[in-house]
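Changelog excerpt

This revision adds worked examples to the README so contributors can see how folded entries look when concatenated. The first example is reproduced verbatim below.
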Amino acid sequence: MISSGQRLIIHLAMGQLSVSTGPSTRCSAKQSKNRMGRTTAPVLAAYRATPHESTGMTPNKLFLGHEVRMPIDIVMGLPPDDGKAATTPHDYLDKLKNDAANAYRLAREKLRASAERRKWQYDLKVKPEQFGIGDWVYYHYPRKFQSKSAKWQKSYTGPYLIVRMIEPVNCVLQWSAKAKPFVVHIDKLKKCYGPTPTSWVASKSQ
């Protein structure tokens, strides 16, 4: 049995329309480019009847609680589950409620799995920076000024000296030996490889 999205695409093909519901959804009418207004609604219908990769469900299933009926269903027939019609309004409401609850439960599980997969793929390219006491770093501290483009402004200040580590992700910076130290997150730091002042951490420990 073919899916609802496939049935809708077959129905559109019978209407002499060429529809693609891939990553870059496109629509082209064979007869004239001026038919774009007429093809917008069928293309949107095909999009709503196509399962999304992130949820595993069609927008129709999540929003309406069931798949839409198409004229091609008369020829191809309905899926096995769609043939079970409710006999009373109460049965219909109960079935709609149960179908919606199951659809949203499956969508949440699918979204959770997709999020974990994307995080795993992102973490493969992440290389954590190691900082320690005595390292000179720049501190990300962007400021906005009127009549100045943020593209031409300095986003980092410093260099600062790391005088103490607060595990696992914080550290204490100090501008000079007499300046007030402050706590920052290590994600806002980058190492300084240029000229730096003389470190005063060793003199404090003596």
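The second example, added in the same revision:
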Amino acid sequence: MDRRQFLGAASGLSVALSLPAKLSASELPADLTDLTAAQLSAVIREQQASCVEVMKAYLERIHRYNPVYTAIVSMVDDDQAIRQAEMADNALAKDEYWGWMHGMPHAIKNLSNAKGLETSSGSPIFAGTIAEADDLHVGRIRSQGAIFIGKTNTPEFGLGSQSYNPVHGTTGCAYDPGLTAGGSSGGAACGMATHMLPIADGSDMMGSLRNPGAFNNVFGFRPSQGRVPRFPVAISSITSYRPAARWGGMSRTPFDCCTPLPATTPGFP
């Protein structure tokens, strides 16, 4: 194990140790999508709910609400997502714990590459382009056990404080789909506020994590320069040549918002 691998493993362990302990039966909600990301992580880790149960709960909610809001785009097939959840359950049964996002459904902002998923950046120029590899921060999210179910909607090339584009359409505000969700991480913010996602990633150059967070009553955190490494990044992304841009987290609670950061930065000076 080299230094970078050691730091990566240590970062994942530090995140896991900071998460809540096992929830009591009375603390478990009837709907698993009501759990915060930290609570959901603990529930999965303690095997109080299976990864398949979690995945099915989120897919049911997505199929119910996403046609109204258009927060999540380029989704994988349900069967594929459930198969990956089954693999996560099998790993836990063998005492293999991948990280704090083990078995949790996740959708990457559609300005970043996630291997096997479309990266259109909301532009017809790149529509249908399938990523051949993960961007650096995306790979680190995947290494914590996240199951990628699709992408979150953005304006074309991330340019705008709204989230509409000619490829996937318009993302509406979680509280009124007739109003804007903000942007450019509008799909991420709306997806969490409507409980279609437990947590989200995003990017921010001039408010793209913070303004949709405010519009949808969730939290967007813009880290300092270099805190989350950005390279390699999607060639179609405006953030690939704008040093003011940052990759960061979005969540329903302040605690959840900072939890992913150590998992995306191991070994980075």
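Reviewer comment on example two: The CA atoms of residues 118 and 128 lie 6 Å apart. The first helix runs from residue 3 to 18.
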